[in-house]
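Input sequence (127 aa), recorded before submission:
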Amino acid sequence: MLSTIAALIFVGLATLVGVFQLALVLGAPWGEATMGGRYKGAIPRHIRVVPLASAALIFCFAVIVLTRAGLALGGFRSLSTTLIWAVVLYCSLGAFLNFVTPSKRERALWFPVVAIMLICSLIVTLL
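Predicted structure, token format:
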């Protein structure tokens, strides 16, 4: 039960992160809330491959979490036992980077989100 709740929270937050990243790809003026706050307004076009890759990765991670929790792709549950550690590692790194970023906006917005995703991914991993 707890694993299911944690997985659903993770997927909800991953969806939020993924939509944010896709909005950056489309030119949303939120550069100060990502990449250390380096860009004011929209991020440059040649950099937009980064949020595109991030969105793809985060959606893959959501599938891994759902699979590990037994909510999707049951035939891949044993593979998800290994892959879930990539999710935990990514969230750990993301939480750390969002905690130490020089961007106050990024730290205030994304550190709590990624920290909760880390906790949820650990619950799904360990239960």
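Checked by second reader. The CA atoms of residues 104 and 113 lie 14 Å apart.
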